[in-house]
């Protein structure tokens, strides 16, 4: 992501961060509309899941300009979601659910440029779900 894109995204981040709980709520509404078959994977307890979604989204999007935190996010996302064997179609739909939630929550508060940059950032985060985690150095591996 280029410097101007990062600045554009950061200019809207406070709006999104202030409404992250509502964003998480709307994300799951859209996700289950687009992928109803995944709803049973969540076991019905959404409070913790919404909190984790908000935290990870915040972490990933703050890290768009910081490759080191994106490496950590990639490892965390791929390990956490790897067991679900999500395909590119599912993650693309999840990305659409995030964008639909942003539009629901912020509507006209986002400029066209901001929407475009968020689409790029979210697509990048969704791609992280398919990445292989980096192997840990021998010193960090469990025996």
TrEMBL record:
InterPro entries: Globin, Globin-like_sf, Globin/Proto. Residues 1-134 form the Globin domain. Gene3D superfamilies: Globins. This is Globin domain-containing protein. It comes from Pseudophaeobacter arcticus.
